Amino acid sequence: MAVPFKASYPLFLCFILFCGVNCTEFEVGGHEGWVVPKTKDNAQMFNQWAAQNRFKIDDTLLFKYEKDSVMEVTEEEYEKCVSTRPLFFSNNGNTVFKVDRPGLFFFISGVRGHCERGQKMIIKVLDIEATPSPQYENGTAPKPHSKSGVAELTPMRIMTASTVFVMATFFLQLYV
Fold this sequence. Notes:
By secondary structure, the chain is of the alpha+beta class. It has a single domain, classed as Sandwich (Immunoglobulin-like), CATH 2.60.40. The chain has helices at about 10-20, 45-50, 75-80, 160-175, and strands at about 25, 55, 60-65, 70-75, 90, 95-100, 105-110, 120-125, 155. The chain has a five-stranded mixed β-sheet. A four-stranded mixed β-sheet has the order 6-3-1-9, with no helix packed on it.
């Protein structure tokens, strides 16, 4: 027996809302990752990278690194390159940080000397719904990041399991 379409209206609304969610995962620093800049000329490399991207609430930052850490700190701690009580700390080498509010976020390395050498970053998160901008270098398309030559999707669109579930349930109700 088919379910009347009117009974599917609430589910259809959920489908539209979930499909409208558009969050992006940004790999901090691009293919080089969260590393100490090699030269003093590159001391602003993370802030330059951040300036090329548009961040919004629910986006995630992926910090990839070896033998290091990442901390979210206050503006004062960012300027001093030191924090005894970071707002966020991780040292697992593959840190995902979810942006949960608009405004400025300040990040530094927790390893002594790394922040002073340029391993720090400020991101600005927009207060409005924004379409994410692709990560372009010098106006060219993103380059492949993997050794196999296959381009990685950065920033990548994220479709959650709940979105897939809602979509499947909606279409099943239409045809059952």
